[in-house]
Amino acid sequence: xQAQIGVTGLAVMGANLARNLARHGHTVAVHNRSQSRTKxxxxxxxxxxxxxxxxxxxxxxxxxxxxxxxxxxxxxxxPTDAVIEEFAPLLEPGDMLVDGGNAHFLDTRRREAALxxxxxxxxxxxxxxxxxxxxxxPSIMPGGSKESYEALGPLLEDxxxxxxxxxxxxxxxxxxxxxxxxxxHNGIEYADMQLIAEAYDLLRQGxxxxxxxxxxVFDEWNRGxxxxxxxxxxxxxxxxxxxxTGKPLVDVIADRAEQKGTGRWTVQIALDLGVPxxxxxxxxxxxxxxxxxxxxxxxxxxxxxxxVPAGVLDESFVEDVRRALYASxxxxxxxxxxxxxxxxxxxxxxxxxGALATIWRGGCIIRAVFLDRIREAYESETPPVTLLTAPLFxxxxxxxxxxxxxxxxxxxxxxxxxxxxxxxxxxxxxxxxERLPAALIQGQRDFFGAHTYQRTDREGSFHTLWSGDRSExxx
Length: 475
Ligand code: NBP
Fold this sequence. Notes:
19 helices, 11 strands, binds nicotinamide 8-bromo-adenine dinucleotide phosphate, 6PGDH_NADP-bd, phosphogluconate dehydrogenase (decarboxylating) activity, EC 1.1.1.44, NADP binding, gluconate utilization
């Protein structure tokens, strides 16, 4: 039998995607550089469906029906290029090579252009949901040509997560669009995690709640508008007790957050595109701060307020923090979607933000009820310029803002770091402002660098002769 699709790279992600395809009734050719992984997969899971185990790339390519559909699931970076170089010469025009790894979208653009010259469809596909998602239904974000999606879409939609019967997979746009939106997805994930962590810290320090009491709070929140995978797992992590010490696990884990790079990429690209994703950036920096043992050690004795005085905060603080979290989350997601709009315009992708929100409702790490609200906002008759101005978010921000301001003020007063909440509120107030102090900055720039400024009342560029008679020239 010829296989409908093949997967090369059978570490945890590739093996689980192959199993997911086989469990859905597709015959899957499987291959891995070291043959032991292929053997293990077929030995342990061969009964789940129809696999064709292949030892060599030649055998693998020969096992596939045409046009061939090959999913590459290897370590991102040089290994992906090595695999492309190995397989591309064996493929024919019209065949499809899908990179499901976490590639940088600029690498995907380069690879797509090179393979297009050889007549091969290269599809950079973001795959979210970790190993469990890969097996049980991930959120899939394929880029590449429309033509390739016609052949790949039905298979990918088949194995993707489903929400209300709708698959969490759609064609995102040409070349690097899929990996771009996956990158921003991860950036949003960083921001969301940081905000949840701050909410935890504020309630723990502010009200002295224990991790298990906080687990109950998050469970409660998970029944409302914050309902999401990340809130759900937060409760589970907080409830976990360390077997060796008997302490809450969260108190035993070293407080240094690590990162693999997609959050950093999101911010780097946002800077290039000029999109103010301050919530995501703050989240990346907060992880970086946590990892700077040297700075933290040196600064530990710096003066600060002496804790939270007894009786100042009461039970109402829990609801304040919940609302502040929701408002900050709206900001972070709005910024992420702004970045997608900017990337889409820069590279001509025409990404549909409503369709994207739809496929992020399930399978991926940021899956949440909230994404349904975002979908509704973008699918309304008058899609908003930024999500903040969608009527349902205007209402939510209005309801939350008093709490949000109180929480940020309390955090500052009691010396509890809340960079995510604070930056989100500052962004909100900046966008709302009638006038920003940017006018003064323009004056300073003109003073020292003759960079000129524009006026509110007349067209043109102006310069004040600061070191002369201070008259204005230009127009
Ligand atoms: P890894 O990222 O750990 O990669 C291991 C695989 O890459 C093995 O199959 C290995 O083959 C293969 N490989 C390497 Br390394 N160098 C190679 C080369 N030069 N030629 C051929 N094959 C090579 O696997 P993973 O954790 O399953 O992730 C796969 C991709 O999916 C990555 O891009 C990752 O970023 C992405 N991703 C991972 C997750 C997750 O939760 N883990 C989630 C979403 C996306 P070998 O067996 O012969 O060494």
